[in-house]
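Protein record

Derive tokens from sequence
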Amino acid sequence: MASEPTRTHRAGFDIRLIVALLTGVYGLVLTIMGAAFTGEAQIAKAAGVNINLWAGIGLLIFTALMGLWAVLRPIRVPVERPSGE
């Protein structure tokens, strides 16, 4: 007797999307702060690096990767059969 393939459906909740949303918001804020509101004195304190801008860009790249991962590889949950079968 061959076993039937297990049916699945997409999960309703994926923590990867929550992580992507949070890092995206922080990345956007840091990128804007680094690009528009960082002065020369603050850059000099950070050894000549606009750390807000680079950290924001890094977080936005991470956000894009997490979102892509969640879309391309969604979590699949097995479908339960009714007890009458």
Remarks:
- DSSP finds three helices and two strands in the chain.
- The mean pLDDT is 90.
- The radius of gyration is 22 Å.
- The first helix runs from residue 15 to 36.
